[in-house]
Amino acid sequence: MSFIAEYGFVLLVLACAFGFFMAWGVGANDVANAMGTSVGSRALTIRQAIIVAMIFEFCGAYLAGGEVTETIKNGIVDAEVISPDLMVLGMMSALLAAGTWLMIATMKGWPVSTTHSIIGAVIGFAAVGVSTDAVHWDAIGPIVASWVVTPMLSGIVAFGLFMSVQKLIINTDDPFINAKRFVPLYMFLTGFMVALMTVTKGLKHVGLTLNGGQGILLAFAIGVLVMLVGIALLSRIKVDVEADRTFHYASVEKVFAVLMIFTACSMAFAHGANDVANAVGPLAAVVGVIQSGGAAEIAAKSAVPGWVLLLGAVGIVIGLATYGYKVIATIGKEITELTPSRGFAAELATATTVVGASAIGLPVSTTHTLVGAVLGIGIARGIGALNLGVVGSIFMSWLITLPAGAILSIIFFTILQAIFV
Hints:
Elements: H1 2-30, H2 32-40, H3 46-64, H4 66-75, H5 84-108, H6 114-130, H7 137-170, H8 175-200, H9 212-234, H10 241-246, H11 250-291, H12 296-301, H13 306-323, H14 325-334, H15 340-359, H16 366-381, H17 388-420
GO molecular function, one term: phosphate transmembrane transporter activity
Protein name: Phosphate transporter
Family: Belongs to the inorganic phosphate transporter (PiT) (TC 2.A.20) family.
């Protein structure tokens, strides 16, 4: 274990720097999936979206990020097959590779999958730098399947939500009154869904553990509280006759704009809970190996330290604040024309899918999930409502991302080996 003993502190500092760089990339690129629909539908300005996302991305990452982090840390590669030295250098190279690719993609304005980036990077170093036996290939199957299944599920949920809005509100004799009647129920659903995952999974990381019944009861209470706050806000909205002359549903969309504040918060929370794993999963593995003095099998079973989740959460927030606006604008305005009622259906469907995946420890792509939701809404409105050229370019960026992460990881792994070994 002389390698770990000799360079332990230097490796830890570098790993933290690379993990922070990766988290910055997650915030700068992938946060568009959380806030793009809010900005595109004009429910929030870019500045407001960044403030909302900074708060709720941080809370999601810190409170509920540990479940998926375990999958990235242990589920993709076999920690017992890889020597401690190679585990440390490999996970560091994976972080640097994924962070580099995200920086390139963000500069180009490409909304790529951070999940693809880090998984490709981890597979790249393990398969080439160690052995193909080091990769849990059977664990890759469900992850790959999730890239197809989650957009479909999200699209179906979004389609259903959008059609329910059409039936209960839009296509009625008095859309405004019905909007004020039914939107609080959507608010309850939003609050309950996010709270349920948080109280049953996330709060373990802050020392509070609840059983199933207690979690459901608390989530129900939070959902009711969100609904009551929403009702109070909605009571201030009056019919705007002048705006309704220009656009018949202008007053109705104002009601949905209030709802979108709640769905934007839930979407940001869900995104932080799922995607912090991409940055801190490999970092947690490195920290575990170094702190255990090179015992990879002990590190594989160690809990994710709270400060590692905190580092990832802070990195996401800084990435969002400094460079997130670029991809937010791309997602929010170029896939399809969004209104608050359409954006709400896309955001709630995406948040529901991502939260469910995070709860069972499956790292899904928020990019894929959101695009699936927006496609579901586009199909509900007619295929002509979609900008198929933009959708096609997004699909192409998805195909490039995984091999790009793998190739960069192999290059950085080789460089780190040359420096330290």
